[in-house]
Design a protein that fits this description.
With 84 residues, the protein is mostly helical. The protein is 98% helix and 0% strand. It has one helix spanning 2-83. The longest helix has 82 residues, at 2-83. The model has no long low-confidence stretch (mean pLDDT 88).
Length: 84
């Protein structure tokens, strides 16, 4: 009888240890997937930010060009109005 109880106790301890190991591995996998997912999201956000910055720079350059043309046209109109 003593051997059966000892064997049962040992089996329960082994089961508990295996369960703890499975839980630890599953936890590491979840963390690993989360870290990888976050890294991918961060990279995507960085790429989007770079694209938006480039777009903003193009818009600023276009704005500067349009402002220069408007100033030139206004100068021409003022000159024409003065001559009349």
């Amino acid at each position: 009888m003593g051997n059966e109880n000892e064997m049962s106790d040992a089996t329960q301890r082994l089961d508990a240890a295996l369960k703890a190991m499975e839980d630890a591995v599953a936890g590491k996998r979840r963390k690993g997937l989360t870290v990888e997912s976050l890294e991918e999201q961060l990279q995507s956000l960085e790429e989007s930010l770079a694209a938006e910055r480039a777009r903003g720079e193009k818009l600023a350059a276009a704005n500067d060009g349009a402002s220069e043309r408007i100033d030139a046209i206004m100068g021409s109109i003022k000159k024409i109005l003065r001559e009349e």
